[in-house]
């Protein structure tokens, strides 16, 4: 499928960079492609947000910034409003949009993936649970224009979003990090994973050893809680989680720090009690993610949440 990008009304694009060589085609047939209107646009390898938004989500009218008809991906295919039934109730998606929500250029999230590839998420639908929903595409700049090599939809948190591309079990996976914020403005960084299956971004559940399906592959990167041990001691638990893009795939590495706070001496620094680390590969198997080791956070809370301080 080939359409002229001039149909997107590229007037107003400014670019000063001009290069002698252009990116070549990948050799892999695209899902669809767009011819560029000028050498300047190809050399810059950049478009205004409103133009990108219209390309990734063609249901959006660039002039009025409104959407007409059903949500479509960058190749014009109608997207389902919710994820398919996975047999796991914990993966149910919120679908209620915020009343009066409008489409804005800032709804577009762009991340460079290598020299000539970009991932673009048109997170146009703001949902009542704080997440956003919209079409997404993996785009490749070529000597003729833009090719889309994967498309679909993503539901996640848009604030502070950063996207990367890695692999799990040999399958390309979108790694989305963004902020989940409450009404008071307190934010928690969330890591989310969306595999590309048959060149579509697809929502899949995650299973954990001993627990079965635990829901969508969204993980808080920090957690904290406190447990009252007795009339004097308070035990504080803190989790720091990192997403490692290792050669073997995606690995979640957790650090849990446990400290005791003396209520009779509140000015004293906390007393270290335990420090534990664990790494868990994220495995993609039979259409779902698996974590084949127990969650360190849950284990530490279970083992030390009711143990009195050693004094």
Task: Characterise the protein shown here.
By secondary structure, the chain is mainly beta. It has two domains: 2-158, no CATH class; 222-304. 7% of the residues lie in helices and 45% in strands. It is built from three helices and 22 strands. It has helices at residues 39-44, 49-56, 296-304; strands at residues 2-4, 32-35, 60-61, 66-67, 108-112, 117-122, 125-126, 132-141, 145-156, 162-168, 171-181, 187-197, 200-201, 206-208, 212-215, 218-220, 222-228, 233-246, 249-262, 271-281, 283-285, 288-291. Strands 1, 2, 5, 6, 7, 8, 9, 10, 11, 12, 13 and 16 form a twelve-stranded mixed beta sheet that branches. Strand 5 (108-112) and strand 6 (117-122) form a beta hairpin. The radius of gyration is 23 Å and the shape is elongated. It starts with a strand and ends in a 7-residue tail after the last helix. The model is unreliable at 1-21 (pLDDT under 50).
List keywords for this structure.
311 residues, mainly beta, twelve-stranded mixed sheet, four-stranded mixed sheet, 22 strands, 7% helix, 45% strand, disordered N terminus
List the helices and strands and how they pair.
Layout: E1 2-4, E2 32-35, H1 39-44, H2 49-56, E3 60-61, E4 66-67, E5 108-112, E6 117-122, E7 125-126, E8 132-141, E9 145-156, E10 162-168, E11 171-181, E12 187-197, E13 200-201, E14 206-208, E15 212-215, E16 218-220, E17 222-228, E18 233-246, E19 249-262, E20 271-281, E21 283-285, E22 288-291, H3 296-304
């Amino acid at each position: 499928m080939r359409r002229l990008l001039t149909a997107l009304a590229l007037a107003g694009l400014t670019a000063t960079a001009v290069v002698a060589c252009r990116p070549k085609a990948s050799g892999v047939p695209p899902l669809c492609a767009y011819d560029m209107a000028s050498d300047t646009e190809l050399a810059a390898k950049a478009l205004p947000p409103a133009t990108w938004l219209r390309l990734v989500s063609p249901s959006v009218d660039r002039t009025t910034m409104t959407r007409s008809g059903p949500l479509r991906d960058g190749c014009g295919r109608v997207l389902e409003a919710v994820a398919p039934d996975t047999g796991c109730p914990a993966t149910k998606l919120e679908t209620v949009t915020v009343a009066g929500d409008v489409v804005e250029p800032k709804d577009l999230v762009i991340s460079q993936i290598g020299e000539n590839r970009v991932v673009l998420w048109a997170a146009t639908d703001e949902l009542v649970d704080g997440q956003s929903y919209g079409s997404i595409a993996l785009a490749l700049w070529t000597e003729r224009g833009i090719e889309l090599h994967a498309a679909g939809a993503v539901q996640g948190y848009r604030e502070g979003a950063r996207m990367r591309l890695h692999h799990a079990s040999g399958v390309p996976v979108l790694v989305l990090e963004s902020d989940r914020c409450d009404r008071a403005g307190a934010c928690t960084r969330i890591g989310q994973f969306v595999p590309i299956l048959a060149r579509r971004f697809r929502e899949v559940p995650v299973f954990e050893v001993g627990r079965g399906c635990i829901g969508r592959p969204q993980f808080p990167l920090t957690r904290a809680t406190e447990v009252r041990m007795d009339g004097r001691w308070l035990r504080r638990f803190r989790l720091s989680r990192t997403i490692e893009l290792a050669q073997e795939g995606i690995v979640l590495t957790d650090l849990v720090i446990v400290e005791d706070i003396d209520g009779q001496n509140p000015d004293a620094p906390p007393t270290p009690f335990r420090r534990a680390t664990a790494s868990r590969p994220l495995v993609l198997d039979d259409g779902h993610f698996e974590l084949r080791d127990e969650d360190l956070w849950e284990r530490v809370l279970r083992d030390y949440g009711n143990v009195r301080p050693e004094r």
